[in-house]
Structure to design on (336 residues):
């Protein structure tokens, strides 16, 4: 079997890079991750590595893999994550993970939350503001301000939790200018935070052990959010924070509620094969879907504190087992 590995590396050719500050390539994969995924795939078949930069369509057409393992994030714009799946659909090459529609949908956090709420899945309320728009707010404070279409805590700094309208306006202005996209302001959910990794499709959907983000492990004075600083500055491989508990220490009622919310968010949003759902409890303990990650991060080393591999290890799956499980799930869906 010939398997294509399509990815975005952290150091792409200069002609393709579109820097937006020091964190512009946070979602892209480092060489260690690319090599780890390639090694895992090599246990299944012949691996062809293709970076998602100009010219990748021609390489895909030339090599014509039997299946593509897609972890490409794209460079810019609301359709960036959908670009490679659109090419693969055009070429008739099957691939792992969500299709273009789901990837475009999940990247827009506000549209996703509104869609889920209308279908009975709790999700935070919010408003979207474009550059220069007057900011108003009729929900309670504190609120959280973030870029509308980013992942990996990109743009979610520790000071993005705001307590009044002036702070909100300042953060909205900063985000719209720096990230060249609208800012999303959402009500802040004050409860515990979790993330749930899922593998499968439709009725055959497995929830791996939930991970809790231990906000009490953050440095003194830090805001109770999983911010850019929490993920990339304070928690380092050489000095990891005790930021995660997996399996989460929760009772059966909460586990059942998390499972039900994560499963419904996964299926309603059109995820396929695998995804990670981030959830946060409100003051009453009700889980809310706060983000859907159809292209979940998969850093290979345990000290990297990457949630999907951490949940897989708790379920008894090695890193290679996890990659193989995703491939087998996609093969089954595509009838390969």
């Amino acid at each position: 079997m010939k398997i294509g590995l399509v990815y975005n590396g952290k150091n792409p050719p200069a002609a393709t890079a579109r820097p937006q500050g020091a964190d512009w390539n946070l979602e892209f994969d480092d060489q260690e991750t690319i090599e780890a995924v390639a090694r895992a795939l090599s246990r299944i078949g012949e691996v062809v590595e293709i970076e998602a930069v100009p010219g990748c369509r021609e390489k895909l057409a030339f090599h014509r893999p039997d299946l593509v393992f897609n972890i490409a994030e794209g460079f810019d714009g609301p359709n960036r994550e959908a670009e490679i799946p659109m090419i693969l659909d055009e070429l008739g090459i099957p691939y792992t993970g969500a299709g273009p529609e789901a990837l475009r949908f999940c990247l827009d956090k506000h549209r996703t939350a509104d869609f889920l709420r209308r279908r009975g899945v709790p999700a935070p309320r919010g408003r979207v503001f474009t550059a220069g728009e007057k900011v108003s707010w009729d929900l309670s404070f504190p609120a959280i301000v973030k870029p509308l279409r980013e992942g990996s805590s990109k743009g979610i700094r520790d000071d993005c939790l705001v307590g009044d309208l002036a702070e909100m306006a300042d953060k909205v202005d900063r985000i719209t200018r720096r990230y060249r996209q609208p800012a999303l302001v959402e009500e802040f959910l004050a409860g515990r935070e979790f993330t749930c990794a899922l593998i499968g499709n439709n009725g055959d959907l497995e929830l791996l052990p939930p991970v809790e983000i231990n906000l009490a492990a953050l440095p003194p004075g830090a805001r109770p959010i999983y911010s850019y600083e929490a993920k990339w500055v304070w928690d380092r491989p050489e000095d990891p924070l005790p930021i995660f508990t997996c399996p989460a220490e929760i009772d059966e009622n909460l586990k059942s509620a998390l499972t039900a919310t994560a499963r419904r968010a996964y299926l309603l949003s059109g995820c396929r094969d695998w995804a990670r759902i981030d959830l946060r409890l409100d003051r009453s303990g009700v889980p809310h879907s706060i983000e859907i990650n159809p292209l979940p991060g998969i850093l290979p080393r345990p000290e990297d504190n990457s949630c999907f591999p951490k949940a897989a290890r708790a379920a008894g799956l090695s890193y290679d087992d996890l990659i193989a499980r995703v491939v087998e799930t996609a093969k089954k869906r595509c009838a390969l």
Summary: The chain has a mean pLDDT of 94. Residues 193-333 form a domain with the D-amino Acid Aminotransferase; Chain A, domain 1 fold (CATH 3.30.470.20). The longest helix spans residues 252-268.
